[in-house]
Specification:
Keywords: Antibiotic resistance, ATP-binding, Cell membrane, Membrane, Nucleotide-binding, Translocase, Transport. GO terms for molecular function: ATP binding; ATP hydrolysis activity. Pfam families: ABC_tran. Its main location: membrane. This protein is α/β, with parallel strands linked by helices. It is about 35% helix and about 25% strand. It has 11 helices and 13 strands. The chain has helices at about 50-55, 75-80, 100-110, 115-125, 145-155, 175-190, 200-205, 225-230, 245-250, 275-285, 300-305; strands spanning about 10-20, 20-30, 35-40, 65-70, 85, 160-165, 190-195, 210-215, 215-220, 235-240, 260, 265-270, 290-295. The strands form 3 sheets. It has a 6-stranded mixed beta sheet, sandwiched between helices. Strands 11-12-10-13 form a 4-stranded antiparallel beta sheet, with helices on one face. Strands 2-1-4 form a 3-stranded antiparallel beta sheet, covered by helices on one side.
Length: about 300
């Protein structure tokens, strides 16, 4: 007998969010399974946060179907919210309270007993690596510490589903890696994560599966490896040239790769075998200032699907 698949924790069909005439989310289908880290990846304005707010039951859907933890947010919002953890883009901690008080006061909102909240706060301080800062005010914390405290606070009610909106924006590399480590631990302990991000390395590190959103629609869906296999090549050759030389060099390399992309400062060759392609470019007399052969990344996929130009 095969295993019975657990029902999806989040299920959206033809989900729409309108603000007046503007359609921010334009009919998307999403399914998040128990125990996975699921990502919404996209440029600013793609509809990621609007989708997250509907899942978090703080913004009503305009159309389509949505089930969170098997319930309808339009009817069971309070019951769903009691079982969710939400980490907003902006830290909204109480700056005047101590680190420990922030956890305890928040825990009381869920109607948890004082003794339970006290014990849980101790565990979460340890988890967030903030035990030595417990009695300090939030004002005295660094950006990375505040972010860890915001995540710890979202875990006070032992949520089954944790929603993280742009969790590491504005953090330095060390703080980001420490935060990722904490999220890996949560996932290993069975918490389901939904993450929005516009950082490719974050999505590649954290997400088992993700959707790339653009203009309120889903442009692609799969694991990071599947998306790279489907929308890019195994390797990319980056060739840098002096000012104005890349156009001529690209003409010489026509047909050498699956795709040739000319950028203001370099030429990218998308190919299965980078070294062999680079050799053939040299044989055609192409002399770049520098060259690099690298594996294709999620960033290549993202830029191909959503374009390199900024959308304001």
């Amino acid at each position: 007998m095969g295993e019975v698949e657990e029902p999806a924790l989040v299920q959206a069909k033809a989900l729409v969010k309108r603000f007046g005439e503007f359609e921010a989310v334009r009919g998307i289908d999403v399914e998040v399974r128990p125990g996975e880290a699921f990502g919404f990846l996209g440029p600013n304005g793609a509809g990621k946060s609007s989708t997250m707010r509907m899942i978090a039951c703080v913004s009503p859907r305009s159309d389509g179907e949505l089930r969170v933890l098997g319930m309808d947010p339009g009817v069971d919002g309070p019951r769903i919210r009691a079982r969710l953890g939400v980490v907003p883009q902006e830290d909204n901690l109480d700056a005047e309270l101590t680190v420990r008080q922030n956890l305890q006061v928040y825990g009381r909102y869920f109607g948890l007993s004082r003794a339970h909240v006290r014990r849980r706060a101790g565990e979460l301080l340890e988890f967030a690596q903030l035990t030595d800062r417990a009695e300090k005010t939030v004002e005295s914390l660094s950006g990375g510490m505040k972010r860890r405290l915001t995540i710890a606070r979202s875990l006070v009610n032992d949520p089954e589903l944790l929603l993280l909106d742009e969790p590491t924006t504005g953090l330095d590399p060390q703080a980001r890696h420490l935060l990722w480590d904490r999220l890996f631990r949560l996932k290993a302990a069975g918490t389901t994560l939904i993450v929005t991000t516009h950082y490719m390395d974050e999505a590649e590190q954290l997400c088992d599966r993700l959707v790339v959103m653009d203009g309120g629609r889903i442009a692609a869906e799969g694991s990071p490896a599947e998306l790279i296999a489907r929308h890019s090549t195994r390797e990319v050759v980056e060739l840098r040239f002096g000012p104005g030389e890349q156009e001529r060099a690209a003409e010489r390399m026509a047909g050498l790769a699956d795709r040739v992309e000319v950028l203001p400062d370099r030429v990218l060759l998308y190919t299965m075998t980078g070294e062999a392609t680079l050799e053939r470019a040299h044989e055609r007399g192409v002399r770049p200032v520098s060259s690099l052969v690298r594996r294709s990344s999620l960033e290549d996929v993202f830029l191909r699907l959503t374009g390199r130009t900024l959308v304001d």
